[in-house]
Amino acid sequence: MSFLRLESVTRRFGTVTALDGIDLDIPKGTRTAIVGPSGSGKSTLLNLVAGFDAPDSGRILLDGECLADGRRVVPAHRRAIGVVSQDGALFPHLDVEANIGFGLPRRAADRQTTITGLMDLVELDRSMLSRRPHQLSGGQQQRVALARALARKPRLMLLDEPFSALDAGLREAMRAAVVAVLEKAGVASLLVTHDQAEALSFADQVAVLREGRLVQYGQPRALYFAPADPVTAGFLGDAIILPATVTDGWADCPMGRVRTDTGGRRGAAEIMLRPEQIRLSPLPPAIAAGDRPEVCRARIEAVAFGGSLCTVSLALAGNDGVVPAGARVYRVKVLSVQAPLAGESVALHLEGVAHLFQPDRAVAV
Fold first, then answer.
1. Beta partners for residue 57, in sequence order
2. CA angle (118, 121, 122) in 5-degree steps
3. What is the pTM assigned to this prediction?
């Protein structure tokens, strides 16, 4: 059942259309991530849902209540929506207790109990109640901001790139913590982020915006392995786009033969592989040049160490083991302990199922 619903929502700024007829249904109690390149309309969408701006046309409904119908809107303070921004936006002159309790009635009998309960929920030690924001780490500040947003029991939580100011290790830990808190509180959330990996790991469903339009919407795994078009494929992660000939559930491409859902199609096509679908193995010396034509050969051009994973640049070679001049270089990911050496010849093995782009590249919503 739809909890947050956007119907043909459009917003223009002069001659620029920031959002163009957005239709979106978000189920109750779920986490949704909005991703897209700069200028795609992500922040505009969040501001419209929060009530900080009004659409030019279209409707926004939350749990059956109409929050916006064109320029007629319910004010932000009456929407029961919590917001956590990138910097937390804590009041620097107030301590943690006052920040969390800012929106609570001062004379409420359960005010103190509510504040300490929220401290426990976001896993902050109660000894921090008297600290000021400058005495907290970035992760602690974000936890306080989340507790403050939860204090008024919002129906929906909006997260505007809340982890981007944190270092990589802390960002991952905070993301997991926020997911746990939101699930325990039973609050639906909408995350805007420029980090595709963050969106895929955080959300139950992901919406991809491009030039103010909804390009694709669905579960993270479905979008990652079956993007609507090559542009979306590259935006959601490293992608290898290849020409192919498809027939009877298989695709023959420059890297070899791989399974694909052809859907009855035959002939020339375009497929996508994720780098992790390409496995490398040493090329046995016993395979003489020209033998075993079914084996796809490649030469390692460079290896970039990246900790647990290495990025390997390779160029395809012919059956004679020679790489043609000007050959395209592909990049794949391999475990560092299995990384080949630059200049080495390897065999390529394609795993999983390749994604077959449709001829018209229709939007899959």
1. 10
2. 90
3. 0.84
